[in-house]
Amino acid sequence: EFMQASWDVEEVQAEGIQYLASFVEDKTAFPHLLTCTEVITLAMKVHTDSLDLQVEGCTLLLEILSQALEQGVTMDLDVSVASCLLHTVRKHSENEEFLSMLCTLLMMVSASEVAAENLRKVGIIPDLLSILRRFLHNDKICFSCCAVLWSLAVSEDNADQAVLASAVPVTSAVLREHLHNGVVAEAACSALWALALQGCLTDSDYEPTAALLLDALRMNPERAVLVKNGCLALASLVRLSETAALAILLDSKGSGTELIKEEYHLHSHEPGVTEALCLLMNEMVQYDEVMLNMRSQKMEKLLSEIKFQFPFS
User: What is its EC number (predicted)?
Assistant: First the structure.
């Protein structure tokens, strides 16, 4: 009430946020802090010129959301909160350090399907892509933005197909830039999978995207989630085009079928990874030429091995 009575007074908003922040360590205060997110974001929107207030507000929201995620509480932030966050993003789009914090906040917010949908409604995708282009070197920003893109694309109702399609080259650029960084590469592979599922790639994207995903698998063979989502992305591409299937077989850096075998033997205890590999192979054998090649690579032996390993799945 103290904050709502004086929206225009920056000192009041700053004091209010600082006072609320003093309750973060008190676990019994958490349910009450949950009700304050709208007040905090609105204070940030009204006083966007004050970087100190933005940082303090953002830090407090991160604390509240972290506790919510730890306790399995879903924060279904409404459109007005999403709009306030977008306003803050646009106002401070050049401030790399603050954006890094803000993008982490957006990633946590987008864990909720409702909140992700509200971020999409207010038109945040072009802003995310603009941030990625500008700060392609920043692994933290790239990780957060790709995670948000994944959340927005999987909850997408296809209303923004053209906007999402423009995310393909940017996401590919992130993956190319951070191939050796498993955490970022994993997020980029997941985003590409969601974009492929939504049919956002064009004919000219299939071959280079397949080659890039294979590179990601080769560079990060031990990361189970990356391998799983990379294979699901490849399966989505192969479903759309034989070109992608042939690109996997004839990749200049080595046979994709050999890579499939290697990944299975690395993750043979992981049902999720094995299922993704099987889905990819199932899509590949839909094309006669590809199936013949896979037979010559003795893929039936691998499939028998998988069947023996997972007899009841």
Answer: 2.7.11.1
Q: Please indicate, yes or no, if residue 286 is contained in any of the structural domains.
A: yes
What is the residue range of 199's domain? 163-312
Tell me, yes or no, whether 171 lies in a domain. Answer: yes
Contacts of 220 (CB under 8 A, 6+ apart): 179, 182, 185, 186, 226, 227
pTM of the model: 0.90
Q: Cα(first)–Cα(last) distance of the chain, in Å?
A: 56
> Residues 189-223: pLDDT tens digits?
999 999 999 989 999 999 999 999 999 999 999 99
Radius of gyration of the chain (CA): 22
- The 10s digit of each residue's pLDDT in 224-256 is 999 999 999 999 999 999 999 999 998 888 888
Helices 203-219 & 256-266 angle (0-180, nearest 10): 40
